[in-house]
Design a protein that fits this description.
The protein is mainly β and 169 residues long. The chain contains 1 helix and 11 strands, in the order E-E-E-E-E-E-E-E-E-H-E-E.
Amino acid sequence: MVLLGFAVAGCDLFAGDSPGPDDDPEALDVVIDPNVEPGEYPDDGYRIREVVGTDTLSDSRPDRPIVTVGTLRTDTLTLRVQYGGGCEDHEFQLVADDAFMESNPVQAGVQLFHDGNGDTCEALLTETVRFNLEPLREQYEEMYGSGSGIMLLSFDLEKEKRLRVRYEF
């Protein structure tokens, strides 16, 4: 299990869905970090079950890796995650690379990190975690000078699986 030195919040923040960061003071800010390597994904015992509040489609053709794409029209990314545990608080941190991948739309490499705090229990838990994406939007506006735009959040999950979230602002 990957242990993180990031400041993170515990499971008590994971109740319910939220329309946006202004209405959700408990949403954790995405962390923009120059040391994140897109494509790295720690195998630490959790999986993203769904992106909540998006129109989602999947591409699982046999000749292609599994790709799930969602469209997000709010500054809060809400993910439903599943992991084993039940005896300790589990903490999550969303970290984005500090440089965008130039494409149309622009892509931001993001990773969801999980710290189970040494939890050895085996209950299968499903939680909802929320992240404020405003720092990514602000970085986009600084680079491109626009008050609105589209960004593709690019999660490379375990082997041959990808999650792409189209973030419109």
